[in-house]
Amino acid sequence: MNMSEVETLAKVEVLADLEENVRELMIAHEAKRILWFPSELLSAAPDTDPDLHIRELRRRAEGISTPARVALALNLLTEEGLPHFHRLLAVYLGGDTFWSKWTNLWTAEEDRHGAVLHDYSRDSMVLNNPVIEKMQFEYLKAGFEPTWDKDPYRVFVYTTLQERATQVSHANTGKLAGAYEPMIGTVLANVAKEEARHYVFYRNVFEEVLARDPNRALESAAAIMPSIDMPGVNMPHFREMADVIRRAGIYGPRDYLKIVEEQIRYWAIDAIEGLNEMGKKAQEKIMAIPARLERVADVMETRSRAKTFAFAVAFAREFEME
Ligand SMILES: [Fe+2]
Ligand SMILES: [Fe+2]
Description:
By secondary structure, the chain is an all-alpha fold. The chain is 72% helix and 2% strand.
């Protein structure tokens, strides 16, 4: 066994020690959850003609702005990346344990997010459906091999940040698109609420990891927190789509900065004591991240100029954004 295998084994033992916490967190999670299904959120009111329901939906959806459509497309694709995420989690959180019960529950919940957005898109015709289906195919075919997949602690830091980021993105997309078409507002509010509960689960898990193994936990957090790549990063046009979403005020570097600050506070990173050299260095590195993110956001905003965009998935309609 080499050193990194020994490290991973030590971390896996900490995970085994956390099983009882996971059981309790799952009970708390399920007690608060309202389990909705896509067809419930999307179907017509009981006394409405279903054909009229779809016609009305399409009429309202015509008003949804092109930037809001781009945001919907990116959110949909992120959700449909679930096979990548299920695989990554199942590596460490599998076996005959409460971890695999969580992984399975989480997967079942997440699967509805992609389904409801896909069904909404088909019913409302708000996106070019053949185009988005091809993008999804390419995204899944390309695979997703993040640098954190060899370290279970990094998995929890990444999932904490990622669940919060998707929550913000869904909630803000829902506000923007929902101003034109209320049904998508309701759909995305429900999805966002579920991301918020996933976020609570992962950040509590990492809190427990920090309490048991602070030095190694901080080292892992210091590796992830400077920036997280969204899973679609290798997708064609991803960067441009992300640029639109930033300009629309849905999600950007300032939101990521807020998310990082929130975790530093919640995990009380600066107050952790009794660390070794490695732990102290990681702690210092983490405490310096917000100032760096602030500079990155400043630079991006000063350099940003008005720009014209067009995306096949949003019917190649040209639009300009500040
Ligand atoms: Fe999701
Ligand atoms: Fe989630």
